[in-house]
Design a protein that fits this description.
Rossmann fold, Pantoate--beta-alanine Ligase, Chain: A,domain 2, 2 domains, six-stranded parallel beta sheet, 37% helix, disordered C terminus, binds adenosine monophosphate
Length: 300
């Protein structure tokens, strides 16, 4: 497994590998898995999907420009040795682990901004967050030129925003959305779960439990409306004293548009997402459930 820190070095290494393959009449496919490290089974699931490619590139970079001034950039969990051991075990070919000065040798004056899709949900609570995400992912795409890039539906809005960016800018990469990986008790895996104390962790189970209850309700009662779903989720979460709701939304996916509160979910033609962001102490957790009518329809 190669470990590379410099963008230029990764570009040259991949160019070399593609050239060698072409000499033998083969075309090399490259799969990219972008992460911020402190890896867990959710990240491992993306790496396993990426192994369908000839070369798997895992990037580990805590991207400062996607954090707001009062967010957790400084305390974001990091453990490079553990990450490298997991990457090795999962047969990653190249780990791209740049320092901030490698990715941003000078303050960036170029930013990519996707309009509309970034104004709701996490985009509303974290101004500028998605500009940081789209900008760093575009940089990673230019550095790696991946054929496929793997993203978790844990960050469903990120998938919607990046799909729009790829379509709008004719980026030659296929995004592969991957299902949310959960603990056996339902809790969605997240690097930020380490911040939670025992009581917060226990109460935070309400996120996945209420989403599951909502899903079952929609399966059983075809007449369930968006408003009823929102009410159920809100009540369940508010019943937990340590929970502080940032948002509970029921929107279309991937357009992230509001649906009329009286719309029965079963009558709506496309996919619908129930998305939550809830704080437990200073830790903000997100989770979601997709109500799918068809295969995930993204602009790719
Ligand atoms: P992060 O390191 O948190 O920026 O996440 C890197 C990638 O892993 C993103 O595409 C996430 O959506 C994905 N990811 C994080 N947690 C999970 C999870 N529990 N299940 C599936 N994918 C995940």
């Amino acid at each position: 497994m190669m470990i590379i820190k410099e963008p230029k070095e990764l570009q040259q290494e991949l160019k070399r590998r593609r050239f060698e393959a072409a000499k033998q009449g083969r075309e090399l496919t490259v799969g990219l898995v972008p992460t911020m490290g402190y890896l867990h089974e959710g990240h491992a699931s993306l790496i396993r999907k990426a192994r369908a490619n000839d070369v798997v590139v895992l990037s580990i970079f805590v991207n400062p420009i996607q954090f707001g001034p009062n967010e957790d950039l400084d305390r974001y969990p990091r453990d490079a040795a553990r990450d490298l051991a997991l990457a090795e075990k999962e047969c990653v070919d190249i780990v791209f682990m740049p320092e901030v000065q490698h990715m941003y040798p000078q303050p960036t004056k170029t930013k990519i901004q996707v309009e509309g899709l970034t104004s709701s949900l996490c985009g509303a609570s974290r101004p500028g967050h998605f500009d940081g995400v789209t900008t760093v992912v575009a940089k990673l795409f230019h550095i790696t030129k991946p054929d496929f890039a793997y993203f978790g539906m844990k960050d469903a809005q990120q998938v919607a925003v990046l799909s729009q960016m790829v379509a709008d800018l004719n980026m030659d990469v296929q995004l592969v959305p991957c299902p949310i990986v959960r603990e056996s008790d339902g809790m969605a895996l997240s690097s930020r779960n380490v911040y939670l104390n025992e009581e917060q962790r226990s109460q935070a189970l309400v996120l996945s439990a209420s989403l599951k209850e909502a899903y079952e309700l929609v399966q059983e009662q075809k007449s369930t409306t968006a408003a009823e779903l929102k009410k159920l989720l809100t009540e369940r979460i508010e019943a937990k004293p340590l929970a502080e709701i940032d948002y509970v939304e029921v929107l279309t996916f991937p357009e992230l548009e509001p649906i009329s509160e009286q719309t029965r979910l079963s009558d709506y033609e496309g996919d619908i997402i129930a998305a939550l962001a809830v704080k437990f102490g200073s830790t903000r957790l997100i989770d979601n459930m997709l109500f799918q009518k068809k295969d995930v329809a993204l602009h790719v």
